[in-house]
Design a protein that fits this description.
Distance between the termini: 61 Å
Helix content: 40-55%
Strand order of the largest sheet: 1-15-3-11-12
Shape: elongated
Number of helices: 8
Number of domains: 3
Strand content: 15-25%
Oligomer: single chain
Largest sheet: 5 strands, antiparallel
Radius of gyration: 45 Å
Length: about 450
């Protein structure tokens, strides 16, 4: 606003008049902008809560994104002589496992030398294990100037090395090259040959100190042999790794299905879904909701309802929907696992318990198959919360509108300044005119007063 003092000449309170005119011009627009700002801020807050609620539920869904998430088993192993894992589908049971022999690779030593700096000869060393289709081999080129240490390094650094480690060992008797193979199994004895007899001392003349051997275990007294210490599917869906020989002192494995895991996952799902629905109900409340009568809120509620009540396509088992495992939707749109049955029908709690105990794989498919509940819900959330999602675009637009208000306020101030300048120009002319009339009136009054006859005594 311009700083002047209108009305000085005329004595009129023109400043108040100008202020009244400017306020009359400003107030309607300011009220409109304030209401617009309140609407945008309220809507933006509501959209933020909407997105946050969807994200919270999505974090729950991630725990049910694979059928294997339900297949958790408790494994009790009586000692650390073996390690045991399952893929979640192993049958319950108890087994005795005795490790009678651990798998080993070949360990051999060259003939003795005087020092690690000694040289041998030149040519190619060939390292081999296995035979036929299982044959593994690699060559190392040796120069006449290579010391034992240099030969060691060449062997260890060879790109095709399949698991041979060379070391230089110095003892009271002398220095030699030691070779250790990580390839285990009875049929995987290490062979070292050459194409030049000058290399015999570190190859064909090497002495085997420890032969390659396979691992052997007894599972409930039945012997099993493998090339490595890992035994897969001896007990179906179970992997046993032998750590220590325990002849005469077998380890007991007890496998049970972890039903509590499935129950917890499903309860978390139900609670997460209901928390999302509660937020949507509050946001869309016709009287107090920040997104009252909002189309997106209505759409998501409808889509959520359809996904959790529809059958899951592509499943061949007897369980194809959430209702089949006891999860139903109540009249308020919330999920529930009812503890009450209807007549001879099982309650939701009984259905869920039975499904987790007897059809765990099918439960996992209902949620995490290609067209499962988790997959569809995740896709739905992404369509709203993704970088190109409906709510993300909406949030961006609202923030842009909010920033745009600054321009509207600035435009209003500019308009009011121009308007005030116009008013001051007009009222300055009025002020000057009235001032002249006042001056003329004062002159006439004074003149007329001086023309009055003197009062008689």
């Amino acid at each position: 606003m311009n700083i002047t003092s209108a009305g000085i000449g005329s004595g009129l309170d023109l400043e108040s008049i100008i202020e009244a005119y400017v306020n009359a011009e400003a107030v309607p627009t300011e009220i409109r902008l304030q209401k617009k700002e309140e609407r945008i801020v309220t809507e933006l807050s509501g959209v933020g809560q909407f997105k946050s609620a969807l994200s919270s539920f999505e974090s729950v869904l991630k725990k049910l994104s694979s059928p294997e998430d339900f297949n958790k088993q408790t494994i009790d192993v009586s000692s650390e002589d073996i390690a045991v894992t399952t893929n979640g589908y192993a049958s319950n049971g108890s087994f005795k496992v005795e490790v009678t022999q651990l798998a080993k690779g070949t360990r051999s030593e060259s003939t003795l030398f005087g020092a690690s700096t000694d040289t041998v000869g030149s040519g190619n060393l060939t390292f081999s294990v296995g035979s036929g289709a299982d044959l593994q081999t690699f060559d190392v080129a040796i120069d006449g100037t290579d010391s034992l240490s240099a030969i060691r390094d060449k062997i260890n650094e060879q790109a095709g090395n399949f698991g041979i480690t060379a070391n230089v060992i110095t003892t009271d008797a002398g220095t030699f090259l030691s070779y250790s193979s990580s390839v285990t199994g009875d049929t995987n004895e290490l062979s070292i040959t050459n194409d030049n007899a000058s290399l015999d001392a570190i190859s064909t003349n090497a002495v085997i100190k420890e032969n390659a051997q396979s691992a052997k275990i007894l599972v409930n007294d039945a012997e099993v042999t493998r090339d490595t210490n890992e035994f897969k599917n001896i007990i179906e869906d179970v992997t046993i790794t032998a750590n220590v020989e325990n002849i005469g002192n077998p380890t007991t494995i007890t496998i049970k299905q972890d039903e509590e895991n499935g129950t917890k996952l499903i309860n978390d799902f139900v609670n997460g879904y209901n928390a999302l629905r509660s937020t949507l109900d509050a946001l869309g409340d016709s009287e107090s909701g920040q997104l009252a009568f909002d189309a997106n809120v209505r759409q998501v509620k409808s889509q959520l309802n359809n996904i959790v009540t529809d059958m899951v396509s592509g499943l061949s088992g007897s369980l194809t929907s959430l209702s089949d495992i006891g999860i139903t939707i109540d009249k308020y749109g919330m999920l529930e696992i009812s503890p009450v049955g209807a007549g001879s029908l099982k309650s939701g709690t009984e259905k869920l318990s039975d499904a987790l105990e007897n059809n765990l794989e099918e439960v996992g498919e209902i949620f995490a198959s290609t067209d499962g509940v988790t997959s569809k819900l995740t896709t739905l959330i992404e369509s709203y919360n993704g970088s190109d999602g409906t709510l993300s675009k909406r949030s961006t637009a609202l923030n842009s509108d909010l920033k745009g208000l600054d321009d509207e306020y600035a435009a209003l101030q500019e308009k009011l300044r121009d308007y005030e300048d116009t008013l001051r120009s007009r009222f300055t002319f009025l002020d000057q005119t009235v001032s002249r009339y006042n001056a003329t009136g004062a002159w006439l009054t004074s003149t007329l007063a001086s023309m009055q006859p003197a009062e008689k005594k």
